[in-house]
């Protein structure tokens, strides 16, 4: 298990947007999160990312697991350049790099005695080994590869993040979370601003991605390619389906039809019982004196009717999303 939601509820503006949501996500699972507009998909992602707390129930994250969350409109420090944003997943590496630079400067000082020189050199070696072990020498190559894959202009790393277009912000935000190599990726509408080649690149990337992914998307073709499980959010609850989006659509249709059939059967049964009660009462009153036995049978039937668990009428058609 990487993350689990246990009977999670979230109240926003006096409305239970999520009322009772439970599921478990295993390592490496690819989940498409779907549901009508306003059903709470973004809210659920924010709860999983830990940027918002549930009002009911709990979210469990496996100890030490890292989450990468791409919001619909990625945010960053207004003074940051794109390179700052792309380097932010490598904060520890950059700290090592800074220390190595400082040690190199100190080594260049001709007044150093042998003993101090040796100490600085030893420390430099430790930093360098750590830097290498953590992939420090590949950092810039990896950043460049992602920038190219997402079709961002070559000069984009030098630009201020705040000056980018919405589409460019999405791409840079995507590049940032991908570079952070999380155990769980949460992507909110990542395809919205992507051009065709960037979309293909992302599909390819995700197909090789070994971590877990939860992706909200209105693009059914994209979902079919990247998801092997679907969480369907509706009326504050979720239903889980195995398989891709096309499979989900078929399964859901069948489930709804079966539910509708059961609802119609029950409605027919109720109608029949109501008619039978009415007839029994009429017969009971027609006899002289009125038949206590027939009234009793009618009352028993009324009680059975009251005890019946009423099925809700399933909504077969509603504005679909995606
Ligand atoms: N901070 C907030 N305060 C009050 N209400 C909110 C807040 N955030 C979201 N909502 C409301 O909660 C509901 C769910 O919103 P959410 O964005 O999670 O849905 P969604 O399924 O992601 O929608 P869409 O598909 O349109 O992006 C909506 O009715 C929205 O107006």
UniProtKB/TrEMBL annotation:
CDD domains assigned to the protein according to its UniProt record, in alphabetical order: ABCF_EF-3
UniProt cross-references to InterPro entries, sorted A to Z: AAA+_ATPase, ABC_tran_Xtn, ABC_transporter-like_ATP-bd, ABC_transporter-like_CS, ABCF_ATPase, P-loop_NTPase
Domain of life the protein comes from: Bacteria
Name of the protein this chain belongs to: ABC transporter ATP-binding protein
Gene3D superfamilies: P-loop containing nucleotide triphosphate hydrolases (3.40.50.300)
Pfam families in alphabetical order: ABC_tran, ABC_tran_Xtn
Domain spans labelled ABC transporter: 3-260
Record keywords: ATP-binding, Nucleotide-binding
PROSITE patterns in alphabetical order: ABC_TRANSPORTER_1, ABC_TRANSPORTER_2
MF (Gene Ontology): ATP binding; ATP hydrolysis activity
